[in-house]
Amino acid sequence: MITCLQKSGYLLEGRLVKALDALGLLVEPSQSLLDETTGVSREVDIVAESYRQATETPKICVKTTFVIEAINNIYPVVLLTRKLWTPNTPSDDYLHYKVTPSEDKPYHPFLDKLDLQQVQGVHRWEIYSQYCAFTRKKQNDELMASHPEDLHASIRKAVSYLFVSKDEYYGWMDNHPEDSYWRLFQWQALVVLQGDLYIMREDERKKPDLVAVGVARLEYNFHHRGTPRTVIVNFVTESALPQFVEEVLVHNETIETQIAALRPSADTGENTTA
């Protein structure tokens, strides 16, 4: 039974929960998601939310929610076909966030002064548009590259939960009565692999070359409730996950500091309207 469990993803999920908890995140495994196409309830492996009390930046909150699917891949996963930046690149859709005060204000106290795409370094991202995994029909057969249904289903669950969380669970932020808090809540979709992750590049002779990496980004396009959506899905190996999350947490603190610099100290009173 232990051997069977080791070949599954159950032990991987347990290790990820412990690792995220050790990083100080609020971790919720096995979160429910209704598949509106089939009417069947599905489970997202892990939802983890950053949390800290920032006394040095009063009434400013920047946090990230990680929606995670865990994959125990026997053979490597490969991201390939690197995207080229063009005027049609949907970079505005790469960051998923909500703010208070609401973003629909004609003047926003910090978004008008803080370029989130620049702060997050979006235009430096190396983004891929395809992915594949490998299987063998029998032990000694050649490898076969494909889009396995279980991997696609995991990607779809993570991005679907991201939108449900952002649009429904945090929909209150869209019509939130003005208070003295400035909030920037962000969402990221992750596929965490127990096995190897590669990206496809060309070597100096322009021939295909596979490079082992810990993190890679996939642009995933799909329809959510009849609306076309674009999401960046972060593929992360289990060993690279702690550093990936820590970098996000440190970056959140940096953004909090930048937002705090835009706010006069007197503007933290309870009677302030932003």
Task: Quickly describe the structure.
With 274 residues, the chain is an alpha/beta fold. Helix content is 24%, strand content 36%.
Q: Could you walk me through the main structural features you see in this protein, from its secondary elements to its overall organization?
A:
By secondary structure, this protein is an alpha/beta fold. It has one domain (2-263). It is built from 5 helices and 12 strands. Strands 1, 2, 3, 4, 5, 6, 7, 8, 9, 10, 11 and 12 form a 12-stranded mixed β-sheet that branches. A hairpin with an 8-residue loop joins strand 6 (127-135) and strand 7 (144-146).
Features:
274 residues; 24% helix; globular
List the helices and strands and how they pair.
Layout: H1 2-7, H2 10-22, E1 26-35, E2 40-49, E3 60-71, E4 77-82, E5 96-100, H3 116-119, E6 127-135, E7 144-146, H4 149-169, E8 182-193, E9 197-202, E10 208-212, E11 215-224, E12 227-237, H5 241-261
Parallel strand pairs: 3-8, 4-9, 6-11, 8-12
Antiparallel strand pairs: 1-2, 2-3, 4-6, 5-8, 6-7, 9-10, 11-12
Total beta strand runs: 12
The helix/strand order is: HHEEEEEHEEHEEEEEH
How many DSSP helices? 5
Number of domains: 1
Derived structural class: alpha/beta
Helix content: 10-25%
Low-confidence stretches: 270-274
- Our measurement of the CA-to-CA distance between the termini, rounded to an integer number of angstroms, reads 58 Å
For the biggest sheet, the summary is: 12 strands, mixed
Q: What form results from the Cα inertia axes? A: globular
* Average pLDDT rating: 88
Strand content: 35-45%
